[in-house]
Design a protein that fits this description.
Helix content: 40-55%
Largest sheet: 6 strands, mixed
Number of helices: 10
Shape: globular
Oligomer: single chain
Strand content: 5-15%
Radius of gyration: 19 Å
Number of strands: 10
Structural class: alpha+beta
Distance between the termini: 34 Å
């Protein structure tokens, strides 16, 4: 890829969806409600700023040499919201005494490794883009996000949400929004937005599985495991294996994700339910991966990557478009009638998109 290629439209993407924070903001517990409300208001301001930046245009990044090594820099925001903060660890530096810094550094590396060794991609833009992250963002900030240029992690409130660097799949999820930004550039609304979210969940899960050396039967297929506080009745933010079962809690409510088109949610909130309906393509990927077995990034992940980066996936693609193109990608790489083709057909039929 040309190192001067400009990215597509950058979007403001958070791992904790607004519908979940909105639920907490109505809590009878004033501290929880206030923390969620502050996070919602801050995210809304950042989302507006991102739209303005997009309209004005973002200058292309300076050309960087393409190597097989990442270029990571982690900053400490010092509980403020001015980015990036103070530089605390660069590429090749020894671990610091700050666990959040070290987890962010490792997560950036794990993401780089999967995309390079699994798919031959050099960083987010395939042109050696440096990977930057800021930790300790804001006060009790209950989210993590990719802002179009870097990763940002809050510490959580220590009650409902813990430090957002604890889950490597969350780090991979947010960085994959950058990969989507530089490839298919899926519009962040409706079904194309749900596909955008699903791409991040799929590759976030693959990054965790790759870093742990897991096969499909060993993986937990959860997004954000370890992120929920001890008082929460739940295991993660989302489940790819069983969408709708990640949590069922008095404060968070019940996980609203559907697993099939029969449960598709029509809503004006959350950009048309991008964090909700993503459960459908997520579940399709889980079925393909477990049907094929072995290491999910080797065949199922390869098909998803080919579809995302192949050039035929339009920015406004819907689920049916992705299903059709992913089946074609499987046939192109592995042939017609084989295990990969059959797994794809089974998966899309199972979620109602056969």
């Amino acid at each position: 890829m040309d190192a001067t290629l400009r990215p597509g439209r950058p979007v403001f993407c958070t791992v904790v969806p607004p519908h979940l924070l909105d639920r907490i903001a109505r809590s009878r517990d004033e501290r929880r409600a206030d923390t969620a409300q502050r996070t919602l208001e801050h995210d809304a301001a950042l989302r507006t700023r991102r739209r303005v930046t997009t309209v004005r245009g973002v200058a292309p990044a300076a050309a960087t040499p393409v190597t097989d090594e990442p270029r990571r820099t982690v900053y400490d925001a010092g509980h403020r919201t001015r980015l990036p903060g103070a530089r605390v660890r660069g590429e090749g530096d020894e671990p610091t005494g700050d666990a959040s810094v070290n987890r962010a550094y490792a997560g950036l590396g794990a993401t780089y490794d999967l995309f390079l060794k699994g798919f031959g991609r050099h960083s987010i833009d395939d042109a050696g883009l440096p990977l930057d992250a800021s930790v300790h963002y804001g006060e009790d900030y209950d989210n993590a996000f990719w802002d179009g240029r870097q990763m940002v992690f809050g510490d959580g409130d220590g009650d409902l949400f813990l430090d957002f660097t604890v889950s490597v799949d969350v780090i991979g999820h947010e960085l994959t929004h950058g990969v989507t930004q530089y490839t298919a550039n899926l519009e962040y609304r409706g079904q194309s937005g749900a596909l955008n979210e699903s791409m991040s969940d799929v590759f976030g899960s693959l990054i965790k599985q790759y870093s742990l050396g897991q096969t499909t039967d060993q993986a937990d297929w959860l997004i954000g495991a370890g992120l929920l506080g001890p008082a929460v009745t739940g295991v993660a933010l989302r489940s790819m294996k069983a969408p709708g079962t990640a949590y069922d809690d008095d404060e968070l409510g019940k996980d609203p994700q559907p697993a099939t088109m029969d449960g598709y949610v029509t809503t004006h909130g959350d950009n048309g339910g991008v964090h909700i309906n993503s459960g459908i393509p997520n579940h399709a990927f889980y079925i393909v991966a477990t049907e094929l077995g072995g290491k999910a990034w080797e065949r199922a992940g390869r098909i998803w990557y080919d579809t995302l980066t192949g050039g035929a996936l339009a920015p406004d693609a819907d689920f049916a478009d992705f299903a059709r193109l992913s089946v074609a990608a499987a046939v192109a790489r592995y042939g017609e009638g084989g295990a990969e083709h059959q797994a794809m057909q089974k998966a899309w039929s199972a979620v109602g998109l056969g």
